[in-house]
Specification:
Layout: H1 26-36, H2 40-52, E1 60-64, H3 70-79, E2 84-88, H4 92-95
Parallel strand pairs: 1-2
């Protein structure tokens, strides 16, 4: 008996946030994330994710792959002065 396994073709238009600094136009990744801040539906999903994280005053949170830091800044406001929110990213472009 043989199995027919489907292997999708690699997409040429796929965006790879794992290699931002090595891309031809790293600033386009930053612009994309900045523009996504104006998307109301996405912002609602982010607020829901903060609730699922149980982000609250005094918590300590780590955002791995923080990109431009919009989520880690929002989380820092939630955890307040008694908590801590830290963001890390492998892209110097994103962190800058």
């Amino acid at each position: 008996m043989t199995q027919n396994m489907y292997t999708p073709e690699p997409r040429q238009d796929r965006v790879d946030f794992g290699n931002v600094d090595q891309s031809t136009h790293p600033h386009l990744f930053v612009r994309y994330l900045e523009q996504s801040q104006d998307n109301d539906e996405l912002q609602m999903l982010k607020r829901q994710s903060y609730a699922l994280l149980e982000a609250a005053e005094g918590k300590h949170l780590l955002d791995i792959g923080c990109g431009i830091g919009d989520d880690v800044h929002a989380l820092a406001r939630i955890v307040g002065m008694s908590g801590k929110a830290v963001g890390v990213d492998n892209s110097q472009t994103m962190l800058s």
